[in-house]
Design brief:
Elements: H1 2-7, H2 14-30, E1 38-42, H3 48-53, E2 59-64, H4 67-79, E3 85-89, E4 104-108, H5 117-125, E5 133-139, H6 159-168, E6 171-185, E7 191-203
Parallel strand pairs: 1-2, 1-4, 2-3, 4-5
Antiparallel strand pairs: 5-7, 6-7
Length: 204
């Protein structure tokens, strides 16, 4: 996680803040029943999405595997005087069978960095009860240029990919649709557009 430690202090760019706000609005608008829920965000970075949702949720556990990112979570939540959160340095897979349960679990553009997705989803599943919601924002299949062919472990996911992973972990995918698009400068010096999906699943 050394790379993400190095990026933590400068992570909150205007574009990342905007995409987190859009993701939060999509989630709240489509599923108002999540208001007042206990929630967990994994692969949270500096917790941008959780910051956008914090006023709507009872309590959020914000998890990232980079200590510097977790330090930024404490700093940024503290600046906003939010107290209904817990920040933890951990891989989501290491939380399996923790004995803690969350009505809502979500992630924003983190899944494609996780090597063992099956194990990660099994861990997530162990922290939810029947009827609880899992919301994933991530990339549609792409050619590797999103990370300039360097560090993207998975090159996005199709609806069928997500259905497979979710079903194996005991979820039913309720919806899969485009949430927003990310614009990034690629190696050729041009701006490329990358669609991001919103997958909503319920624990069976």
């Amino acid at each position: 996680m050394e790379k993400f430690d190095q990026l933590a202090a400068s992570w909150d760019t205007p574009e990342k803040i905007e995409r987190a706000m859009v993701a939060a609005e999509k989630l709240i608008t489509a599923f108002p029943e999540i208001k007042g829920s206990t929630a967990l965000e994994f692969g949270a970075g500096t917790g941008l999405l959780s910051r956008a949702l914090c006023k709507h949720l009872k309590h959020i556990t914000v998890v990232d595997s980079s200590q510097k990112m977790v330090d930024e979570i404490h700093k940024k939540f503290g600046q906003l005087k939010y107290v209904n959160y817990t920040a933890i340095r951990s891989d989501v897979s290491d939380l399996k069978n923790s004995g803690k349960y969350f009505e809502l679990i979500y992630s924003l553009l983190a899944l494609h960095h996780i090597t063992d997705i099956e194990n990660a989803f099994k861990s997530v599943s162990s922290m939810q009860k029947s009827g609880n919601m899992l919301v994933i924002f991530d990339l549609y299949p792409e050619d590797g240029s999103f990370h300039n062919f360097e560090d993207g472990i998975h090159l996005g996911f199709s609806e069928q990919d997500m259905e497979k992973y979710l079903s194996q972990a005991g979820y039913k995918q309720m919806s899969f649709s485009e949430a927003f698009r990310v614009h990034k400068l690629n190696l050729s010096g041009t701006i490329s557009e990358y669609p991001v999906f919103m997958s909503v699943a319920r624990k069976e």
